[in-house]
Specification:
Blueprint: H1 20-27, H2 29-40, H3 43-57, H4 68-92, H5 107-111, H6 113-118, H7 121-127, H8 132-143, H9 148-155, H10 159-176, H11 184-200, H12 203-209, E1 210-219, E2 231-232, H13 234-244, E3 251-258, E4 261-268, E5 271-281, E6 284-291
Parallel strand pairs: 1-6
Antiparallel strand pairs: 1-2, 3-4, 4-5, 5-6
Helix pairs in contact: 2-3, 2-4, 3-4, 4-9, 8-10, 9-10, 11-12
């Protein structure tokens, strides 16, 4: 059986002539980050998982490895499962609602519709309701299309058990995932109308673009002011936004690609303040996800490449 060794080395960056272990790791790095991020919803924790994956990979006897990609995915999955349990304990003491860490994604992420949906704020929140093992199986099967035997190796269960977990996780997600498939253009148009109405304090304009049952979720992490509980209903959300954002001097809103879909970046006096992602259905915004916790905004300064 292939073993996962450890070796205290820095994670490679891909510069210079690489040895086979480094070359394989760098080749699959974006894929491994995507696996970890989809399982964790945290870029910072995903990077830690990649560091741990490299430490184990660097000590492996490559002659005994039949499929380097599969082996790396297996290490990453196991490290992510361990990290998920740590994250779960952190979330129990988190101030307010916990939202996934937003990513400024490269344009090619949006071109892969299934990948873009899987990393959307709405979908990552649905995956938060899965047990760790269910989330791992769901991500590896539904997003990365791995076979049951390969997933079984990664999560330490039998292929038959993995099939049952996959069926259960699929049904769980299907019952909770956002309805409808929306084009980028439709989301972009809705956010443009939202931005114009918010910037001008146009309450009716906001009511026109918000769905009646819209939900606003904020994440300040106890560091920045944010709604502690979801705000439901177009009137409540619109009035909150007009009274808050509409009166903020020095605030600018600009479009950006957030987690594979159109979103907004808010800056206060030039400093990154809030990242907003949205879910749109039939031309109206049904979900707004506003991340203000500064500890979660570091990945919005440069593009992240995701791969499956």
């Amino acid at each position: 059986m292939e073993s996962e060794g450890t070796h205290a080395e820095e994670q490679p960056t891909g510069g210079g002539r690489a040895d086979p272990a480094t070359e394989a790791f760098v080749t699959h790095r974006n894929l491994l980050f995507t696996v970890a991020y989809e399982m964790l919803g945290s870029a910072a924790d995903a990077e830690d998982v990649l560091q741990e994956t490299w430490l184990r990979w660097a000590g492996v006897d490559l002659a005994a490895v039949r499929d380097r990609r599969a082996y790396l995915v297996r290490i990453t999955t196991r490290q992510s499962l361990g990290r998920l349990r740590t994250l779960g304990r952190r979330k129990e003491s988190y101030v307010g609602t916990w939202l996934p860490e937003p990513l400024l994604t490269a344009p090619d992420v949006a071109d892969d519709v299934e990948l873009a949906e899987s990393v959307s704020m709405a979908m990552l929140l649905v995956m938060e309701t899965l047990a760790p093992g269910e989330r791992a199986v769901f991500v590896l099967r539904e997003v990365f299309d791995l076979g049951y035997e390969e997933i079984a190796d990664a999560v330490g269960k039998s292929p038959a058990a993995v099939r049952q977990i996959a069926h259960r996780a699929r049904a769980h997600v299907a019952a909770r995932r956002p309805r409808g498939t929306v084009s980028r253009a439709e989301t972009r148009d809705a956010l443009d109308a939202f931005r114009q109405a918010t910037e001008t304090g146009d309450l009716q304009g906001l009511l026109d673009v918000l769905a009646p049952d819209v939900v606003l979720i904020g994440d300040g992490g106890g560091i920045k002011q944010a709604v502690l509980r979801p705000v439901v209903g177009a009137d409540k959300v619109a009035r909150l936004l007009v009274n808050g954002l509409g009166r903020a001097a020095g605030l600018t809103m600009r479009p950006a690609q957030v987690n594979g879909s159109p979103g907004l970046v808010l800056r206060l006096d030039g400093t990154l303040d809030t990242v907003v992602a949205a879910h749109v259905l039939d031309g109206r915004i049904t979900g707004l996800y506003a991340v203000r916790n500064p500890e979660k905004l570091s990945r919005m300064e440069q593009e992240t490449s995701l791969l499956r």
